[in-house]
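Query form — protein Putative 4-hydroxy-4-methyl-2-oxoglutarate aldolase

QUESTION: What is the three-dimensional structure of this chain?
INPUT:
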Amino acid sequence: MMIQQPKPLTVKRDLPRPSDAQIAAFQAIPTGFVADALAGRGVLAPAIKPLLEGNLPFHAAGPAVTAHNSPGDLLATLAALNDVQKGDIVVATVCGHQGNAAAGDLVMAMLKNGGGAALVTDGPMRDLSGIVDVGLPVWCTGLSPASPSTSGPGTVGLPIQIGGQCVSSGDMIVADRDGVVVVPLGEIDTVLATLDTIRAAEAAYDAEIRAGRKVSRKALDVLSDGRTDFL
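ANSWER: The structure tokens for Putative 4-hydroxy-4-methyl-2-oxoglutarate aldolase are given below.
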């Protein structure tokens, strides 16, 4: 028997956060560009997808506020709403639990009231019509009518594992139709500098394709420089 029961919540205060300029620089940037700038790192599992019903937005970029919930629970997500600043994205794990919803329209409405930009979770959502009415974007694993509990234990603000990635509060989250990418706080400036090169390369390649290119330069190089065995 435990002499003292653990508290249902652990909350980290004074969460780190990117600068306003860093946050602004990621707005409207495709996740593909961000993933390329990270050399393929930071991409959440493809099971975490945007809800696209009812013309919900499908692009968001903002600092993470993390919540770790026990499977089937919601308490940490609810507590994380207390720390949301304008433009933040709540990233809430339920340890991949699919037996009930990770959140619903009431959470989304409170997130919107607090100035939050989006929710990312590795569980399903519920109350789709209400979520559509709220109008904030959501990335999740689907839909479920089953309600979560609010018992804990859980954490807010501490690093979490979600979708195969580690996410810390203050990391930049960039999400769109293709999925979700996590940019570690300490790598933001490096990624932003690399994005300029990626944009230029992508624009040049697009121009070549519009002009009629049929085979990639990479493939043509391998075909012509002795690295191919022809049978």
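ADDITIONAL NOTE: Residues 10-185 form a domain with the Glucose Oxidase; domain 1 fold (CATH 3.50.30.40).
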